[in-house]
Structures are given as C-alpha cells and as structure tokens.
Design brief:
Structural class: mainly alpha
Helix content: over 70%
Distance between the termini: 20 Å
Shape: globular
CATH topology of the largest domain: Rna Polymerase Sigma Factor, Chain: A
Largest sheet: none
Length: 190
C-alpha cells in the first residue's frame, strides 16, 4: 500500500470493499435496518471526490487513512441525523477511533509478530484483498467469521447469536476459512 496513487478514481474504487466492511462493523445496531453500509461508502466516496484536490498524500496507505477519516465523519453524521442530536465532537472522535480500531483489527487478523516495511505494504494489500474476499462469502459464513475473528466470540456465543448449533457454526467457519484460503492462494499464483 506504499505504492503511489497515480489514478485517484481507480485507487478509491480499490478501497470500496474495505470501507464497506469497516462501515458494516461500525454501524450502530439500531441503524443497521435503516442505513446500508454501501450507502455510507457511497457518501464517503462523494466527499472524497469533492475533496480530492485537498488530498496531499501520495501512497495507498495515506489514501486509505484519509478515507477512514471521511468514513468516520459520515458515520457520525448518520448517527446524528437519525438521533436528531446536535453535533457531538466526542461522537465523531469515538467513531473515528472505532473505525481505526476496526482497521487495525483487520490488519492484525493477517499480522505476523514483526514485519519489515515491505511486509507491511504487502499486509496492507492483503487487508484490501481480505475485505473483497469476505464480500464474496455467503452472508452466514461472513457473519460467523467476523463474530469469531473480529469480535472474538466463542462457538457457543456465535451459535446463540446466529440461532444455530455449534457444529453448524463450526462448519460455517471451516467453509468460510477454506474459501478465504483459496482466494489468497489464487491471488499468489502467477
């Protein structure tokens, strides 16, 4: 992700699935039936295009950090609009921190103990690829994986949340992981 941003439009598009995943993870439960993460991402892209001339970064890492910040503001505005509250700077900061935390959790999902700058760039690319691969999973597999590896829930907790048996959840996790492994193996083949 330390590659230079030569075509901002294409670079933004590469981040779509990643931003959708972050929006989905940070969208408050009370708004999930009222607001779609894709709409949040679309609003984020609209603001990004409007402010593209002010973007001073040069790498994909800087672009994704900038987009995460815009996403946090869009989410804060959505929460405020649905709750009809006045501007709450603390809410915006907490959402920005939560989006950043979600991003770090996704990166840690792929992390090694110590990495070089080249490995960091590769891991950042993998985060974008992971978001895209997760999008390709059936909803129940994606939900089980996120609950297990992002939220850290046990099989029993996931089973309760999804209304399934433990063996069914284990099967969802196994199939989801197999699909993700296949996606990443296919990506590394020449």
């Amino acid at each position: 992700m330390n590659e230079p941003v030569t075509d901002p439009g294409a670079s933004l598009e590469r981040c779509r699935d990643y931003l959708r995943l972050l929006a989905r993870l940070q969208l408050p439960a009370r708004l999930q039936g009222k607001l779609d993460p894709s709409d949040v991402v679309q609003q984020t892209f609209l603001r990004a295009y409007q402010g593209l001339k002010q973007f001073r970064g040069r790498s994909m890492a800087e672009l994704t950090a900038w987009l995460r910040s815009i996403l946090a503001h869009v989410l804060a505005n959505a929460v405020r609009n649905f709750s009809r509250a006045r501007r709450d700077v603390a809410l915006e900061r907490s959402l920005e921190a939560a989006v950043e935390d979600s991003s770090l959790r996704l990166e840690n999902w792929l992390a090694a103990a110590q990495i070089t700058p080249g490995e960091l760039a590769q891991r950042n690319e993998q985060v974008l690829a992971l978001a895209t691969a997760l999008k390709g999973l059936p909803e129940d597999q994606r939900e089980a994986l996120l609950l297990r590896y992002y939220s850290g829930l046990s099989l029993a907790e996931i089973a309760d949340r999804l209304g399934r048996t433990r063996p069914a959840v284990a099967s969802l996790l196994r199939r989801g992981l197999e699909h993700l492994r296949k996606c990443f193996l296919d990506e590394t083949k020449p």
